[in-house]
Amino acid sequence: MVKIKDIAQKANVSLSAVSIAINGKKGLSVETREKILKIAHELNYQQSSTREIRGVLRFLKIALHGETINEAHNLFISGYIDGLIEQAGKYSYALEVVGYDKKSVEEIVRSQNSGALADGLVILGTEFEQGDFTPLRRLSVPFVIIDNVNDFLPFDFINMNNRAAIYNILHHFKRAGIEDIGLVYSDAHTPNFRQREQAFHELVPTIGLRSAEENLVCVSPNARSAYEAMLSHIRAAGKIAQGYFCINDIVAYGCIRALHECGFRVPDDVSVIGFDDLPVSGVMEPALTTVKVGNKKLGAAAVDLLVSKIDHGRNNNHTSVLLSGELVKRKSVRQRSAKP
Asked: Would you say residue 337 lies in a domain?
C-alpha cells in the first residue's frame, strides 16, 4: 500500500507538503502541487476512507515579530511539521497547520476560541517572551508549546537542550586545541538564542577556554547582517579569535563569507560552529560543523504529550521536556595537529 512518505521521497518534498497537496489546502506553489499530485497518481495512491479519525490537532505557526520565524527558517520548521503529521497519524488524528504573522497573542487566542475548535494545539513558541504567554491561559483546548521553555509558567513545553549543546560545542573546540573562542550572537528577541548565549558565557571558563570582550559580535539573525557585522568587526579589531560559535547556521554562513573576504581560511586560520544543521550546511564550502536539532523528534514528542493531555484531561501537573541535539562534525573546525 502506497503511503504519504513514499510520495514525499519520490517528489523530494516534506511529508507536510504531500499532506497539503492531497488535501487541497493552501501553502504550495502550483508547480509543487502538480508535481506531488502527478506522482501520487502514478503510484496509484488511495486515501483511506475507512480509517476512523479521532479528531483534529492543530499546529499554530506563530511569527510574533518575524525576526526568527521567516522564510529562511521554513525548511527547519517543516521538520517539526513532518514529526507532527507522522505522530498524529499514529494516534488517528488529522493535523491542520495555521499560520499567524505579526498578530498579537490575544488575537490568536480569540481566533482559536471562536472558530472550529481543534482537539488540541501545538504552539510554535520560538518568538514568545515572558509576557506573551499570559493570554494562552484563556485557550479552550489543551495545548503544548514547542521551541521554547519557561520553568516559571504552568504550561507544557518541548524544546531542545541548549545548554547541553553548547557544552558539546565548547568541548569540541577544546579537543581541537582551540581555546580562544568568539561568540556571534543575536539581538533578536528569541529565548533559545538567549539560552545559548548565557550557556556560552557560563561554560567557557568552566571548560578552561577564553572569550575576550572584543570577540563578541552582535548581529541580526540573517546571513547579510551577520556578514556585514563580521566584516566591520574584523576590520575594526584587526585580529580574530581562533574559533567562533555562531548562534545559528544562517548567521554562520554570513560570518564565513566575511572571514573569507578578509583573507582568513576556514578552518585553517579560524574554526566556525553553527547551530540547527540546515540542509545547506552539509554542502557549503567548507561543510559546517553544527548542532543537529531533532526537530522531527521534537514534533513527535509534542504530539505524544498533547494526546496524553487530551486523553487524561487537564490537571495541575505540567511537563517540560528537553531533547538533546547531536554535534555533527564536518570540515569547519580544524583538526588538532599531532605532536612531533
From this structure: no
Q: Distance between CA atoms of 250 and 65, rounded to whole angstroms?
A: 18
Kindly compute the dihedral angle of the four CA atoms of residues 166, 171, 176, 181, in this order, to the nearest 10 degrees: 50
pLDDT by 10s per residue, the chain, length 340: 788 888 989 999 887 778 778 776 666 787 888 888 889 888 887 766 555 678 889 999 999 998 888 887 787 898 899 999 999 999 999 898 999 999 999 999 999 999 788 999 999 999 999 999 999 999 999 999 999 999 889 999 999 999 999 999 999 999 999 999 999 999 888 999 999 999 999 999 999 999 999 999 999 999 999 999 999 999 998 889 999 999 999 999 999 999 999 999 999 999 999 999 998 999 999 999 999 999 999 999 999 999 999 998 766 688 999 999 999 999 999 987 644 4
- Rounded CA gap, 72 and 326, in Å? 22
Identify each DSSP E strand in 114-219 by its residue range.
120-124, 143-146, 157-160, 181-186, 216-219
Which domain CATH number covers 128?
3.40.50.2300
Does 179 share its domain with 249?
yes
pTM comes to 0.83
C-alpha cell at 329: 562534525
Q: How far apart are CA 281 and CA 266, in angstroms?
A: 14
Question: What residue has cell string 556578514?
Answer: 227
Angle at the Cα of 326 from the Cα atoms of 65 and 334, rounded to 5 degrees: 100
CA dist 191 and 69 (Å) reads 13
Amino acid at 74: N
152 shares its domain with 166? no
The one-letter code for the residue type at 184 is: V
CA angle 198/203/205 to nearest 5° reads: 120
* Paired strand residues for 217: 184
